[in-house]
């Protein structure tokens, strides 16, 4: 049997609670956990838990601005890989960057 690769996708949404607002998609080879957070601090706090779950890579939604990405990369401390979907002004955040909101 092949090894399952575990990854996560984190997105920002007002009033999100990552302990409640998440779901999994599981295929034979890849499991992806999608998690909503309401700010950068919540995303950074998640990193320890994701590492414990065996997550090897995290992709951040376009709502994370440059500072938000830097914060998560610092929290990851090379324990998992961090990738980014890029929007300079995110349409779901009233065309703002998360850096302007958080």
From TrEMBL:
InterPro entries: DUF6506. It comes from the Bacteria. Pfam families: DUF6506. This is Uncharacterized protein. It comes from Photobacterium profundum (strain SS9). The lineage of its organism: Bacteria, Pseudomonadati, Pseudomonadota, Gammaproteobacteria, Vibrionales. The gene is CAC3513.
